[in-house]
Design a protein that fits this description.
This protein is an all-alpha fold. Helix content is about 60%, strand content about 0%. Helix 1 runs antiparallel to helix 3.
Length: about 80
């Protein structure tokens, strides 16, 4: 369980860097698309980071746009 939390913490830090947000604002954000600078490239960067940390676990997800917040990413990763 601790290893899972460590990976999630690393992922949150990487996503906060990609989106140029502090950790608290990132966690409170309901949808990444609410960020003014959001674009598909940022989405691809986030997907790439998830794949690096979790070993290609996204192949089962049919609609990657559903991973639109830390809450949704955490929920998805907790179910795989």
């Amino acid at each position: 369980m601790q290893k899972k939390n460590k990976k999630l913490e690393i992922l949150i830090l990487k996503i906060s860097k990609i989106l140029n947000l502090n950790k608290k604002d990132l966690i409170d954000l309901n949808n990444f698309s609410d960020i003014e600078t959001w674009d598909s490239l940022k989405q691809l960067e986030i997907i790439t980071e998830i794949d690096k940390l979790y070993g290609n676990k996204l192949k089962k997800l049919k609609d990657l746009s559903k991973l639109s917040s830390i809450t949704k990413i955490t929920k998805y990763l907790g179910n795989i």
